[in-house]
Amino acid sequence: MFGTAFSFTASxxxxxxxxxxxxxxxxxxxxxxxxKAYEPEVVAIGPCxxxxxxxxxxxxxxxxxxxxxxxxxxxxDVKKYVKVMRQLEERSRKCYAEPTDLxxxxxxxxxxxxxxxxxxxxxxxxxxxxxxDPVLKIGGFHGILCRDLLLVENQLPFFVLWExxxxxxxxxxxxxxxxxxxxxxxxxxxxxxxxxxxxxxxEVKHLLGLINDCWHPSAVEMKAYRxxxxxxEWSFMHCATELQEAGIRFKKSEGNCIFDxxxxxxxxxxxxxxxxxxxxxxxxxxxPLSSFFPGRSLNHVTDYMNFMDCLINSPKDxxxxxxxxxxNNWLGNDEVISSMFxxxxxxxxxxxxxxxxxxxxNVNIFLQ
Length: 368
What we know:
Layout: H1 17-26, H2 31-36, H3 57-73, H4 79-93, H5 104-126, H6 141-149, H7 158-168, H8 173-184, H9 207-213, H10 219-227, H11 240-245, E1 249-253, E2 262-264, E3 267-271, E4 273-275, H12 300-311, H13 315-323, E5 327-329, H14 334-342, H15 357-367
Parallel strand pairs: 1-3, 4-5
Antiparallel strand pairs: 2-3
Helix pairs in contact: 3-5, 4-5, 4-7, 5-7, 5-8, 13-14
């Protein structure tokens, strides 16, 4: 199914946070439409979708962005960029699960044009010079573009992007991470933290991998989680309205990472979840479902999905959480959100030892 994509094993499938929101929409769609979820809507990155008719228009913008870069750097040709891309060609080809029939010239051209488009979009957005660019003048286009750039079949190796960024801008990992997250913030549903054991960008496989690595619990929560000497199995928890009737209060956490959920003294503190799918349909299809990641010891995103699924059984639960500022529902329909959460169980494999096992158990102890 993944075609010419980065190779991941099926047994290690875990969701990124972006996929959580995308999965909410995907469960509402018929199977034929779900198949389209793996296809980009507006731009092809890498060899898998290259040359498809509905993506041709963006090829002109790729060339235009490269020309704008040359103007910005006051350079007359692309020789130095082509030279570096040629040096990375063999290494880049090995990153894809299946071989491509592109010859060296075409492959190098693809690397340069696709890489330049991504880097310049991110840089220009950070400098606010992208706002008036024709590529984003269509309402909702930014969100669709972001989702396309985070499809696993629509990636360049990350070292290609990093090499280009170092040639074009200040070679700072911190700056690159910051402006990248800033660009994708239009579709991200809350605050995340950089993976605390991420020591170098060279560990990142692709752009989607970077977003995943920047969407983790806070360092404080991770430290507390690792300090636990005994793993706790999670147990069933009642929905939000039932918990409230039993005396538990809900409160929005201010300024916290979205994964940092606490239960103390009868109060459930949960950071705000932004369900911002106002741009989910530009051509009539549902949000694209992105990639799956290699297994890691922490399964926090799936655990978060399961936790919220427990809290939400009906529109009344959504209404309660919305009134407390825990859910910011841009869809404007509590029933739609409730329905989407109720059907998440079809797509999520529940962890035996949840990141939130202690919260589950403390709630149940409080109710005894």
